[in-house]
Design goal:
mainly beta; Immunoglobulin-like; 2 domains; four-stranded mixed sheet; 2% helix; globular
């Protein structure tokens, strides 16, 4: 459990990926979504749609969620999902919870980022507090590696200054509809201090979207 919070407080949602030797593992498409089970209507409600988590260091990601003023008291379910680099189907998934309660008893989460460990056939490390259920790494990714291309660019503002923290998402062009939940995302990245980003893709036609904090989303079509 991530902690207890009241309306207006910030829930810090961490994820960290390591291999069996405690080395950081970089992942693709690290996303988080939050659901709440509404007992009055007997249904799950989406409090946060699937959102890219912020890259904060090797194998480490974070999302800060502000509890909205209309949030009901109760338990909220956090879903995290990520793909292994170069893999199409191998996905890591995790769930955790936090509770929304009255102001008088809320305690903001201040625990450090928990560690997630990949499964190993040799030995099973101690289960972390934040549980990542990981499939085995795709054994054929090295075969496909030569057919993939590193697509990289730099995001700048109107004054040609680099823009940090812009989320770059890549979707298949075929069937793409703006803001549709059915769009197929194949890669993502976040610009660094120099505005640079890089994504590995197979040759094809894609839609690239760019969204920075407080900025309107921009889209472009690219042939890789």
């Amino acid at each position: 459990m991530l902690g207890r919070f009241s309306k207006g407080m910030v829930v810090k949602i961490p994820a960290a990926f390591q291999d069996s030797q405690q080395r950081p593992v970089e992942m693709d498409n690290v996303n988080v979504k939050i659901q709440f089970f509404d007992n009055d209507h007997r249904e799950f409600k989406h409090m946060l749609p699937e959102t890219a988590m912020k890259y904060i260091g090797p194998g480490r990601y974070l999302h800060e969620f502000t509890v909205p003023p209309h949030a009901k008291n109760g338990n909220y379910i956090v879903h995290i999902q990520a793909k292994h680099p170069g893999s199409i189907s191998n996905v890591s998934e995790a769930t955790d919870t936090f509770e929304v309660i009255d102001n008088t008893t809320a305690i903001e989460n201040r625990v450090p980022v928990q560690e997630a460990v990949e499964e190993s056939t040799d030995s099973q490390p101690e289960k972390p507090a934040f549980d990542i259920n990981t499939f085995k790494i795709d054994k054929v990714k090295s075969i496909n590696q030569n057919s993939k291309l590193d697509v990289e660019d730099v995001v700048v503002d109107i004054f040609n200054n680099p823009v940090k923290g812009v989320h770059v998402n890549v979707f298949e062009k075929a069937g793409f509809m703006p803001k549709s939940p059915n769009n197929v995302k194949v890669g993502s990245s976040v610009t660094d201090d120099t505005g640079a980003w890089k994504i590995r893709l197979s040759p094809g036609e894609y839609v690239f979207t760019y969204k920075g904090l407080g900025m309107k989303e921009n889209r472009e079509f690219r042939k890789v």
